[in-house]
From TrEMBL:
Keywords: Metal-binding, Zinc, Zinc-finger. InterPro entries: ISR_Activator, Sel1-like, TPR-like_helical_dom_sf, Znf_C3HC4_RING-type, Znf_RING, Znf_RING/FYVE/PHD, Znf_RING_CS. GO terms for cellular component: cytoplasm. GO terms for molecular function: zinc ion binding. Gene3D superfamilies: Tetratricopeptide repeat domain (1.25.40.10), Zinc/RING finger domain, C3HC4 (zinc finger) (3.30.40.10). Pfam families: Sel1, zf-C3HC4. This is RING-type domain-containing protein. The lineage of its organism: Eukaryota, Sar, Stramenopiles, Ochrophyta, Dictyochophyceae.
Length: 168
């Protein structure tokens, strides 16, 4: 597998119990809580700050489970993968919307399995942009809006594109 970022594992924003839990990073009441895949909850800004420190192991402070990739990592990896797909697409002289139809006719498509792999990779890009956008990354929101606007690998939706552009 290429790159250091794999399929995104989601962080969940959660509601804190009435007995205000303490964040084990800042030792204060949890503000804008986020739950890691391991189940531990922290302030969103504390996790963002933890990710910002170079040299600090990217893991849960309590159980040492590896943190899922953050919005910046997801965005960077999605852009890298999308550029790779775009380069392959630009060599093929077929449109995104007609990918299946042209694959049957154009000699550039050596096999259906190659095209299926490109579609899977594009789905991974979409998933990474979506996860990064859900964590508030403006660039991911904009790029995801573009994918919806032009229908690249997903069903075209001007409404979803506008919503994402407004968030960005």
């Amino acid at each position: 597998r290429e790159g250091s970022v794999t399929k995104p594992s989601t962080l969940h924003h959660v509601e804190v119990d009435t007995e205000m839990d303490l964040c084990s990073i800042c030792l204060d009441d949890i503000v804008d809580p986020i739950q890691l895949p391991c189940g531990h909850e922290y302030c969103t800004h504390c996790i963002q700050a933890l990710r910002g420190f170079s040299g600090v192991q990217q893991c849960c402070p309590l159980c040492r489970a590896t943190l899922p990739p953050g919005p910046d990592q997801l965005f960077d990896e999605a852009v890298r993968r999308y550029v790779k797909i775009e380069r392959q697409h630009s060599k093929g002289a077929f449109s995104w919307g007609d990918l299946d139809q042209h694959c049957r006719v154009i000699s550039h498509c050596q096999s259906q399995s190659v095209m299926n792999e490109l579609k899977r990779e594009l789905q991974t890009v979409y998933d990474m942009y979506n996860e990064s956008a859900s964590q508030g990354h403006a660039g991911a929101q904009c790029n995801l809006g573009f994918l919806y606007e032009v229908g690249r690998g997903i069903e075209q939706s001007d409404q979803k594109a506008i919503e994402l552009y407004e968030k960005a």
